[in-house]
Give the backbone structure.
Amino acid sequence: MNTTKLRRLLADLLRVNGRYLRDDVYRNTIRERLNNVGVGSHAIEAREVKRSPRAARPFRGLVETSLALSGIDRSGGGRHVNIVLGEVREGGAFAGIQTAVAVGVALASELGLPVRVVMVSWTTPGNSSKAAAAVLRERFPGVSFEVVAREEILRASFGEQDVWLATHWKTAHAIDVAATSGVIDRARVGYLVQDFEPGFSPWSTEFALARATYHAGFRLLVNSAPLQQYLAREEGVEVPDDATFSPHFDLDLLRRVAEERSHDATTRVLFYGRPSKHRNLFRIGVSALQIAVDRLEGSGLTLEFASAGEVHRDVDLGHGQKLESVGTLPWDDYFRFIASRNVVLSLQLSPHPSHPPFDGAISGAQVVTNEFADTRSALHPNIDAVAADPVSLGEAVARAVRRAAADGPTGYRDLAPGALGGSLDDAVAHLARQLQESA
């Protein structure tokens, strides 16, 4: 390597390290990418290629999950419902994973089969199938889980009569490749769609692959009526109402949160801020909070701002106000924390109505979120859905602060029946019937 090239590499390294130290968004993006690479992943991938049928090999390298299931041993005699997830780990099991496992457990109950969780992402350092099983047992007491980590898939035994549940586009893609190669029967695959996931990777290979999973011939189960409507409009994918369910909210827990809220002299604002998740519009949210603080200057109100969801540096909001980051909170701590926050700003640029706005609204907080494709207006009286620009959002936050300061929390307010879809149990029963008939 010549001196000039070495000098350039060192200069680039200094710039990258400097930005990593200064820029929260950049740092979280790098961490997110590093988390996808576990120890020994190249050796595991080589074994997967060797075991995969010839028809699967052209898909190698499209994404990290492409060949995760193509080389499985199908000599197993028993039958399972295989819930295919990315990874389950302590501190990383968000609402989407919680719902996916709940659906898989309910489907297994309908079909009278045991549950197996198959993790197809590279296992992050410090995690294991044993650790993941412990997290699942804590979340789902009384349910027996067999967990297979990515590095264990080729040593596990699967059956030709197994039922498969895809829970994210990368898991659906892995199943699709295996089905294309004749390893998995498409008629035995359900696909839980929880968001319009092509939007997570716009205008790219990932975008195209994610869209393709909606047309792979799997039986779709859709989380929320707004997402059902969006899939019909954008993809021409018609999912019946019977296969569409409302997101699951722990209503007993939210009742307790509502009871713990109080009308204090300080109005506390929670921002669901995840810098590495672009759909959560972190920078727009910060700008909106700065505008809200400016609009509230001179109001005489005592304010406090906190961000939860992902660690980042504290942010100066102006006029002596600061957005303090509490980072990712364990499940119980999260609900204890939101009980102290009577105003919530939670953004998501996708058609699926995410959980934090409803956790706040149902438990009595004033909530501001962004509108998306006319899917959020009038979903709940405590939610103000406005255009996804800093001024509209900032002014909505200022209005919410004034309401909360004057009136306090509203108390527990459930959703109107059917506002977001039917019941989870009915939708899973419908999927079970479909899978039994098609298989």
Summary: The two ends are 59 Å apart (CA to CA). Residues 251-407 form a domain with the Rossmann fold fold (CATH 3.40.50.2000).
